[in-house]
Amino acid sequence: MTVSYMEESETNHMYERLDDLVMRSEEILNQMGQPEIANDSKKLQKLMREQAEITPIVECYLAYKAANQTVLDSLEMLESESDAEMREMIKEDLNNARAEVEKRESELKILMLPKDPNDDKNVIVEIRAGAGGEEAALFAAEIYRMYQHYCDQRGWRTSLDEIEETGIGGMKKVDFTVEGKGAYSVLKYESGVHRVQRVPVTESQGRIQTSTCTVAVMPEAEDVDIEINEKDIRIDVMRASGNGGQCVNTTDSAVRLTHYPTGIVIYSQTEKSQLQNKDKAFALLRTKLYDMELQKRQQEASDARLSQIGTGDRSEKIRTYNFPQGRVTDHRINLTLYKLDNILDGDIQEILDALMAADQAKKLLQMEDES
Question: 314-343 in b/e burial notation, b at 16+ Cβ within 10 A?
């Protein structure tokens, strides 16, 4: 007998999967101890990755079963115990165990949610200045620095892929790669339109202006994710240049790719050699093509049910940065924080945690509706 606070059908189905995971964890440990596996680095790494994924679930499930057993033992002891003091101690253990069962149930529901296959991938972030002219370009540069600071705090590595700057420190567009465990699982919530409200430096009348920039967070595509036909690509090489066309390289190191079927143009000049820029350009092209396919699939899915938080329409206004009031508001979850300076300095974890929690809650409701 198992004490549970979940619906019976949901519980039975979950237990079957959890029992399978426990058995799989034991199987992996046994395989990793075999000489033929230990000497095969590829197989060993694959098993280690799988074990790392299921270990948190298995540990939570075992803690859940232990708490259930404590509940059963405590109930049985209460039936036979007559001493008042001992009964109070048993009741305390029983209440603690019941609380632990409920806590572990909640954790298991979240841990057993379908996993986005892209969550562990690195990402390419694309920021574009929107409405607002030079002010929008300045805002885009601030959002870029916000993500840089956040990634630094997480210990994630960032590298610049493509940039188009303005003369006074703004950015018309910027693409950069983020390398770090679980980068996409966190940063995917940042896709959408970011809006700023403030008095621009160039505004002589002191009027508040609203400007925007768009952010697209794309999982980095691997060779196996997307196939590119070389006949569909035109490759041009040229000298890299700085602001205003100023030559910064005396060799033809910059690379421009034109993908005929989609019209996507990639320009890479951030690396010193032509080969490095070509590799980077192809990586960016693969990612953009892969992202187009993902967006198509998500659009098809949204026809049947609501899109999840953070993976919806990129034309959606997701967040406002209001300078006069010193606040940042995320419109998807109605969260407002009055620490604008800290947020623009990379302190965005509180927002991301709230978005992830809201997304998990939405997925749980969808699962209950479908069960």
Answer: eeeebbbbbeeeebbbbebbeeebeebeeb
3-state secondary structure of 43: helix
Residue with tokens 């002010």: 135
Integer CA distances (angstroms), 287 to 125, 217, 266, in order? 10, 10, 11
124: closest CA among 72, 159, 165?
159
Taken as a whole, the chain contains a residue count of: 371
Give the H or E element holding residue 192.
strand 192-198
Collapsed DSSP state (helix, strand, coil) of residue 116: coil
Q: Give mean pLDDT, residues 68-78.
A: 93
DSSP character string of 245-287: G-B--SS--EEEEEETTTTEEEEE-SSSSHHHHHHHHHHHHHH
Q: pLDDT tens for residues 108-125?
A: 877 877 777 888 888 999
Q: First-to-last CA distance in the chain?
A: 23
The position carrying tokens 């993908």 is: 259
- The pTM assigned to this predicted structure is 0.67
